[in-house]
Please model this.
Amino acid sequence: MEKIPLNERPTILIVDDDITFATVLGEAFESRGFAVRIAHDVITGARLAADDSPEYAVVDLKMPGASGLELVKQLHELDNNTRVLVLTGYAAVATAIEAIKLGAIHYLAKPANTDEILIALHRDQGNSRIEITQQPLSVARWEWEYIQRILNECQGNISATARQLGMHRRTLQRKLAKRPSKK
Model:
């Protein structure tokens, strides 16, 4: 197989605080012919993108410091042709909507494999034939979704969110530290 020179490969920026996951994903994209850059926080990701705007970006939602949503916004402002995908273990309707509004082209919940990510990065339209589940969301999932919506409305401010929800700040922090219910 002929090697493509690095400067002719499509570029992808992977920003995820899980070092192992980012490394494995980066290796998978390199094996598929991409020039890969990896960052583990929003500041480093923004700096790498400013140095050389990527064609594609895979951004984790929840990282220490600023949220991945902030990076989605910065990437879109830097180059609105960058195809940004938000990948998260903390999927919620509110954050998915915000990610799309800020310039992401797709939003996937972890775990997602490299092929699923590649397909999502190249999709230009929605899928009207996607299966609609007959199972309603659980109360735990509804609570998670509602908290995420209010947190987003309060621009990530935990204290303001807790006040709006009528709960103690530490209680809210404990709820946010838990993974959301799958259903």
Observations:
- The chain has a mean pLDDT of 85.
